[in-house]
Each structure stands twice: as structure tokens, then as C-alpha cells.
Amino acid sequence: MIEAPHASAAVAPARDRPPLPVRQRAGRFLVLVTVFICAACGLVYELELVALASYLIGDSVTQASVVLSVMVFAMGVGSLLAKRLRCRAAVGFGLVEAALALVGGCSALVLYATFAWVGGSRYALVAFSLAIGVLIGAEIPLLMTLIQRVSRRAEQDAGGTVADLFAADYVGALVGGLAFPFLLLPWLGQLTSALLTGAVNTVAGGALVLWLFGRDLTARARWLLVGVNVAVLGVLATVTVLVDDFERAARRAVYGDGVRVAVHTGVQEVVLTGAAGQPPELFLDGRLRVSGRDEHRYHRALVHPAMRGPHARVLVLGGGDGLAVREVLTYDGVESVTVVELDAGVVRLARTDPALSRLNGRVYGDPRVRVVYADAFARLRSTAATGEAYDVVISDLPDPGITASTKLYSQEFYGLAARVLADRGRLVVHAGPMESRPRTYWTVHATLRSAGFVTRPYRATGRLSGFEAGPDRSTDDRAGPHDWGFVLAALGAAPPDPQAVAGVRPAEGPPARDLPPSTLVHPRYGE
């Protein structure tokens, strides 16, 4: 409960208050508008931290939990600390908003800098969550004091004042929460949107205090607030001007000097590296997905075991780079290949980039290839409803350890895959590296068996480029996994032996038969 401040401490008696430059009703409205703006900015900072942490560190559930729990705790600390500022609520609020704008506005840039040049951003994430939480928590007590300053009936209408304050705060949070994914992130990107939010935060807090409560301030306090706000705006403006240069430098630090394409598609960040004459490398959200040095080993091991049998109609889930399709089209008798890809930007790059299109054999020019832009889970569900059937289903999806991919390795997903398989059809699943993440690999195996499949686990060796569930920045090939794990599955009869394909080895070690399957309501890959 927020108590009304004592007159002797925070709010002077009405007869001793300097007159406001506007009517009390208008002043109350301006304070509530500022609450609305500050709440929107605060939630944008919070979402920026969650989004960037998920991108830089991986496992969005864990990162969101860390940011939210630390920030809520820090907000409580900030509310307690704000008690000392209530006797000088106006100048205190102005300084808090300037600090919040500077810290929140620069948070994304500093996190990315620590990732690029230090190698990790976990400690910076916790530090920014604490700092931003403390500053956001300090806002409400100070704003409560300010709104009572302009209220005609502060003592008699404390309940209504609190209701108005929190209503404006919650509505502002709603607007900020919707503006971030639908406006700021796609239009400005993570770094610029945080900086712009900081500028808005600075102007809103500074304008309210200097104009509406300027007569409550001493000359020294006014000049202090003006100087601090101008300095913060200057820093944010300078960084905004230099943000493109910073992104290029950070990208070189992460990916090396061979970056040729770097775009935000609306789904993810797509980076293609590789100088002329060198094999290209494709990164999606910082994770190495294709390396021209060894992709042929991966895609042959993925595709060829599943193609031994009827293969007139093939469904490829993921694989927008076209490399799995390249291997499919080497077989006679293929009548149609349907590629289900979420990100149209990846397919566009695979069609138009000279190095990548040369690597995939320009498969998108083949009339047998059709691309459907959709979520793989939703597409399987709609396909199963129509009764359409495929001889081969190839699941060329990101590793199951990545939170966004967990549902695509669930019992429900494989149940849908079983419904779209024709008689004698086969399903092959990329299940992540077996050597470095055996529990994840065997959980995929157990999940397929729980969906009614007969399975043959196998792996491919000779891996030169390592990428784990998080962004891969290793320049030492020994730091990453050395194999790829796959599971070939069929309904009823056992699928053909994958070891007939060159480069394929049996999955070593006995399967952990007691591992439970992963489901939508109980994902197991993060355990």
C-alpha cells in the first residue's frame, strides 16, 4: 500500500505551494500521461533485454525468467530506496528518469558489445536487469507524490489517485509491449529502438518536472536537471548516429571480416559470410546453420538414408537454404518436393546469392520444387487434415535444444508427421550432435518411438564446423561437436539400414530407454 506522504516531509501545505502553470485537473492529466509514457518505455527496455538475451545466449525461456524475476525483485528494492527521495519528489523523479533513459537506452548496445568483444553477456544481462528494475521501481512512489501535489483532494481521494496512477501505468505497459514487436523491432532494430525509447523517456520525464513543477525547484536543481537531461540526450543522439558503424564492427568481431550479407528478415537475423572463392557460411540469429566446408556430409547423411524406397513425393521441413533439396533431386523418380520454410528471407537469399545458389545447385529453378512459407507444425496439421501423403518427410530443423524449436521435436509433432506419411513412407530427423548432447539425442529417439515409429538411430562423422544450441563464435574447430545425430523412422516395418550410405555410422552407446518423450506441455530438451 502506498501511503500519502506527510505534509512536513513531501508535500507542503496548499497555502505554501507555488502555483502550478496549469489548472489542477490539467496537471493531474499531464502526470498520468507521463506515467503512461514511462511505463511504455520501461516495458520496451524489459523486452529488449529478453529478446537480445535470447538471441545472444539462447534458450528464451531461461533468459526471460532471469530478466523478469531479477527485474521484479529490483523494482521492490527501487520502491524502498525511493522513500529517501519523496521529500524532493520532483527533482528525484527527473534524475531517476534521466538515469533510466541512459541505462535502458544503452542496454542493448552494451549487451551486444560484451557478446562481441568479451565473449559472453550473462553478467551484463543480470546487471542491466537489476539497474533498470531499481529505476522503474523508484518511479511509482515518486509519481504518487507528484500526482498528490496537483490533486485538489489528495487526502480524501487517495484511493482514486492510486487507481488512476496504476491504470495509466498498465495501459502504457500494454502499448509498449505491442509497439516493441510490431513497430520498433521490425522498423528500427534492437539497438536503435532502445536508443529512441531512451530519448522519449528523457524528454517525457524532464519536460514534466521542469515545466509543471519547475516552480517547486531551486535554481540549482533546475540547472542540474537541464544539464543532466541535455547530457543524456547528447549521449543517446551520438550513439544513434554511430550505431551503424558499431553494428558493422561488432559483426566483424563475431563473424570475422568476410561478412557479405547481414539482414533482419522479420523472423531472424540472417548473416552470410565467405569471401570470393571461399565456402560460404550461413548464420541464423547468430547460430551457424550451414558451413560450405562440411555441409555435403551433413545433407547426404540426412537425405540419402531416407530416399531408399519410394520417393516420388518428398516433404522438406525447414531447409530453406535448398541444400537438402539438392540431395533429393539427385534421385530419379522424384516428382515433387515441397519445402516448408518459415522465413522467406532465407529462401530469397538461397535463390539470389551467387555463392549460396551455386552451392545448392540452383534448385529453386526446378519446376518440381514448391515452397510454402509457414510454421512447420501448422503446415503438418493442415496437411494431415487434407489427407495429403508423402513418401519421404525430411526434418531439417534447428537443434532441439533451442527453445523455439522444441515443439518441432515433440510427440505431437511426430504424430502429425505420421499422418502425412504414405504407405512404406520414411521420416528422417536431425536430432543434434550425439557426442556432445547424448541426452537430447536419445530424447528425440524416445519421442519418435512414443509416436509409434520404428526407429534406426545413426550419426555422421567428419564434422569440421561446430555449432551448439547457442550462438557459435568458436574459431577452434575442436571446441564444437564433431558429429551430427539423426534418426530414421517408419511406421509398421523397420526402415532401411542407414549404414548403407557412405559416411554414416551407428549411434554409439545404448539408448536411454527410460527417457520420457518430449511433449508440448512438458518439453524435455532443456532438462
TrEMBL record:
<comment type="function">
    <text>Catalyzes the irreversible transfer of a propylamine group from the amino donor S-adenosylmethioninamine (decarboxy-AdoMet) to putrescine (1,4-diaminobutane) to yield spermidine.</text>
</comment>
<dbReference type="InterPro" id="IPR001045">
    <property type="entry name" value="Spermi_synthase"/>
</dbReference>
<feature type="transmembrane region" description="Helical">
    <location>
        <begin position="223"/>
        <end position="243"/>
    </location>
</feature>
<keyword id="KW-0745">Spermidine biosynthesis</keyword>
<keyword id="KW-1133">Transmembrane helix</keyword>
<comment type="similarity">
    <text>Belongs to the spermidine/spermine synthase family.</text>
</comment>
<feature type="binding site">
    <location>
        <position position="321"/>
    </location>
    <ligand>
        <name>spermidine</name>
    </ligand>
</feature>
<dbReference type="InterPro" id="IPR030373">
    <property type="entry name" value="PABS_CS"/>
</dbReference>
<feature type="binding site">
    <location>
        <position position="268"/>
    </location>
    <ligand>
        <name>S-methyl-5'-thioadenosine</name>
    </ligand>
</feature>
<dbReference type="GO" id="GO:0004766">
    <property type="term" value="F:spermidine synthase activity"/>
</dbReference>
<feature type="transmembrane region" description="Helical">
    <location>
        <begin position="94"/>
        <end position="117"/>
    </location>
</feature>
<feature type="binding site">
    <location>
        <position position="341"/>
    </location>
    <ligand>
        <name>S-methyl-5'-thioadenosine</name>
    </ligand>
</feature>
<comment type="pathway">
    <text>Amine and polyamine biosynthesis; spermidine biosynthesis; spermidine from putrescine: step 1/1.</text>
</comment>
<dbReference type="InterPro" id="IPR029063">
    <property type="entry name" value="SAM-dependent_MTases_sf"/>
</dbReference>
<feature type="region of interest" description="Disordered">
    <location>
        <begin position="497"/>
        <end position="527"/>
    </location>
</feature>
<comment type="subunit">
    <text>Homodimer or homotetramer.</text>
</comment>
<feature type="domain" description="PABS">
    <location>
        <begin position="240"/>
        <end position="491"/>
    </location>
</feature>
<keyword id="KW-0812">Transmembrane</keyword>
<dbReference type="Pfam" id="PF01564">
    <property type="entry name" value="Spermine_synth"/>
</dbReference>
<feature type="transmembrane region" description="Helical">
    <location>
        <begin position="194"/>
        <end position="214"/>
    </location>
</feature>
<keyword id="KW-0808">Transferase</keyword>
<keyword id="KW-0472">Membrane</keyword>
<feature type="transmembrane region" description="Helical">
    <location>
        <begin position="63"/>
        <end position="82"/>
    </location>
</feature>
<dbReference type="InterPro" id="IPR030374">
    <property type="entry name" value="PABS"/>
</dbReference>
<feature type="transmembrane region" description="Helical">
    <location>
        <begin position="29"/>
        <end position="57"/>
    </location>
</feature>
<keyword id="KW-1003">Cell membrane</keyword>
<keyword id="KW-0620">Polyamine biosynthesis</keyword>
<protein>
    <recommendedName>
        <fullName>Polyamine aminopropyltransferase</fullName>
        <ecNumber>2.5.1.16</ecNumber>
    </recommendedName>
</protein>
<feature type="transmembrane region" description="Helical">
    <location>
        <begin position="123"/>
        <end position="144"/>
    </location>
</feature>
<feature type="binding site">
    <location>
        <position position="299"/>
    </location>
    <ligand>
        <name>spermidine</name>
    </ligand>
</feature>
<feature type="binding site">
    <location>
        <begin position="375"/>
        <end position="376"/>
    </location>
    <ligand>
        <name>S-methyl-5'-thioadenosine</name>
    </ligand>
</feature>
<feature type="transmembrane region" description="Helical">
    <location>
        <begin position="165"/>
        <end position="188"/>
    </location>
</feature>
<dbReference type="InterPro" id="IPR036259">
    <property type="entry name" value="MFS_trans_sf"/>
</dbReference>
<feature type="active site" description="Proton acceptor">
    <location>
        <position position="396"/>
    </location>
</feature>
